[in-house]
Amino acid sequence: MAKEAESQAENSLIRKADFLFSFCGEKKRGNGEDSYYYALNVDRAMLAVFDGCGGPGAAAYPALRGKTGAYLAARAVSAAWLSWFEALRPDREGDEAELRQRTMDYLRRCEANAGEESGRPQGRMPRKLPTTAAAALCRSERSGVDVRLFWAGDSRVYLLDSEGLAQLTEDDPGGVDAMRKLSENGAPANVINLSREFGIHCARLNMGRPGLLFAATRGCFGALSTPMEFENLLLNTLLSAPNVQEWEKNLKTAVGKNAGEDYTLSGAAFGFGGLDELKRQLAGRARLLYRTYIYGLDGCSKEEKQQLWEHYKPNYERLLCRVTGE
User: Fold this and answer.
1) Any idea what DSSP says for residue 125?
2) pLDDT digits (tens, 9 = 90+) for 34-85
3) How close are the terminal C-alpha atoms of the chain, in Å?
4) Residue 85 CB: number of other CB atoms within 10 A?
5) Domains with residue ranges and CATH for the chain
6) Which of 120, 194, 235, 308 is positioned for an S-S bond with 286, CB 3.0–4.6 A?
């Protein structure tokens, strides 16, 4: 089961966040290699997803009911990042070096308790306990919502607002856009693991207008033919839903129809005041998206889809935080 944690305390951030939404879909029941959480404390929220890398982490651990290294890694790192978040005090931002150290401590503890491996990892770059990660640490301020981003690999954090869908975190390795990524397979070079050096990328931005902020694993967007279709899927399910619970349910179903792997999403809405206002503010964007990019897309050639992507790309990448240190 995916890990989920929620504080019960009423606080200023909860009152400013309209609602939280999340789901985790498994391709193999009981053996999904994704994990997630959303967590709240006195003045912050954290939204996070983790995608255990099933090729490099395919070795199984008989002592733990045959669970794979990918399965264990996603849950160990999820627990580490949740523990880091829960230790934050109102007067502290949180130390990034401490986040990395806590990550390593939890992975080593997991390794020590897992016993011997059986089977072999797949691919040319096997890793012990590999997983991607993507998280948004949110804090409401007078100027909007201050968002700190943390990520490794190709899980992503997104923003959806009246301007459209924006990818906030660049996939590893940097320099490859979202359209090209759809044709690539295999685990990214930089993932959290115990075998090789890795980086946890960090960035910051301010949400000065209402928006949906969410983290998603590759299974949510990786099986579509264009990035525009992911935005269309989000908007269509949102605008047809009578309440948040139905939207969450319908979105999970729509994503699952396309997904070729586990698919996980964790998010929150800020600044709309409720679902009705959110739908009102995004209805115009949905119409524009359909007219400009979605209508007739099924009949487009590969070259025509690429042209549409080049037109869509600047707005989609308007807030993109680049990978550094490549």
Assistant:
1) S
2) 999 999 887 899 999 999 998 888 888 998 999 999 999 999 999 999 999 9
3) 35
4) 21
5) 12-316 (3.60.40.10)
6) 235
